[in-house]
């Protein structure tokens, strides 16, 4: 067990609600693994209180925090300094506080997504990727994939939103009609689901992978259930799959390093530990 002393480094995750967050489990696992004198706590913060809580954390000597739904855009506006990733997204999920009180922020979701694919030896440069969806999650994924030189095609039920995303991010990307993607699948190396289709508690959706190339890699950013209907369909066809849990674990690494000074490792033990909590 990690001992928390008076010198402990403290970080937090802010959300509303917050009780479903797996981040405390994950960060405290690492704190224990690396025997760090520190703690990471969940804070239920109402939207109208976000700014005052962040300022209070700075005053109280916190090292920083993660923010989750619904705070990512509002937290961006609370930062004194943000990087390119955050500017593109107009949102942040990771904040750290400099000793002089400067509030810094970035968005690590895209980085986490790319790291989880690289971890599974999926090479992304010039990789032909089809993205399903054009919501907030798609924005992080598309930005990160574009930065590593993937060739991007986006399809979304509401096609105007895909167009808007491409314009807003100012990237080179193709667009496909939502009805047409199953028949066009053969051209792609990687299929990414960023929609809420297949999420636990949502209605069932049958992903049609009939025309998938045998080398197609399939990934989903949803991680509850761990094997989503899309990943199940891909596995049934013998395709390589990358589960969404990896993105959750990898997106957390940068914050941990900023607050606690160690670049943590994502491995099988951690993956199984967090996955077992998802089953409860
Ligand atoms: P997030 O920020 O988590 O990405 P979001 O912004 O609400 O959430 O985006 C949800 C995505 O899932 C959108 O791309 C949405 O498509 P629309 O833009 O057409 O709404 C997609 N989505 C949700 N339900 C869907 C459904 N039944 N069929 C197809 N796409 C769906």
UniProtKB/TrEMBL annotation:
Its EC number is 1.1.1.25. Residues 244-264 form the SDH C-terminal domain. Residues 122-196 form the Quinate/shikimate 5-dehydrogenase/glutamyl-tRNA reductase domain. The active site is at 72 (proton acceptor). One of its GO terms (molecular function) is shikimate 3-dehydrogenase (NADP+) activity. Belongs to the shikimate dehydrogenase family. Involved in the biosynthesis of the chorismate, which leads to the biosynthesis of aromatic amino acids. Catalyzes the reversible NADPH linked reduction of 3-dehydroshikimate (DHSA) to yield shikimate (SA). This is Shikimate dehydrogenase (NADP(+)). It comes from Commensalibacter oyaizuii. The lineage of its organism: Bacteria, Pseudomonadati, Pseudomonadota, Alphaproteobacteria, Acetobacterales.
């Amino acid at each position: 067990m990690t001992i928390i002393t008076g010198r402990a480094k403290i970080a937090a995750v802010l959300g509303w609600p917050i009780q479903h967050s797996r981040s405390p489990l994950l960060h405290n696992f690492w704190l224990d693994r690396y025997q760090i004198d520190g703690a990471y706590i969940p804070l239920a913060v109402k939207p109208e209180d976000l700014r005052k809580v962040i300022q209070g954390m700075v005053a109280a000597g916190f090292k920083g925090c993660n923010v989750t739904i619904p705070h990512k855009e509002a937290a961006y506006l609370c930062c004194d300094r943000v990087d390119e990733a955050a500017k593109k997204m107009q949102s942040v999920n990771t904040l750290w506080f400099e000793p002089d009180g400067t509030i810094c922020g970035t968005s690590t979701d895209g980085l986490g997504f790319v790291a989880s694919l690289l971890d599974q030896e999926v090479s992304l440069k010039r990789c032909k990727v089809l993205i399903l969806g054009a919501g907030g999650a798609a924005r992080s994924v598309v930005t990160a994939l574009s930065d590593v030189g993937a060739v991007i095609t986006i399809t979304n039920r509401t096609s105007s939103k895909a167009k808007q995303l491409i314009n807003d991010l100012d990237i080179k990307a193709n667009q496909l009609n939502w009805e047409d993607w199953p028949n066009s699948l053969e051209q792609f190396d990687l299929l990414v689901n960023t929609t809420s289709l297949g999420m636990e508690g949502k209605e069932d959706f049958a992903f049609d992978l009939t025309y998938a190339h045998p080398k197609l890699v399939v990934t989903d950013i949803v991680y509850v259930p761990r094997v989503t209907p899309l990943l199940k369909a891909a596995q049934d066809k013998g395709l390589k799959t990358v589960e969404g849990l990896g993105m959750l674990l990898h997106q957390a690494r940068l914050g941990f390093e900023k607050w606690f000074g160690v670049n943590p490792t994502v491995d099988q033990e951690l993956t199984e530990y967090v996955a077992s909590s998802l089953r409860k």
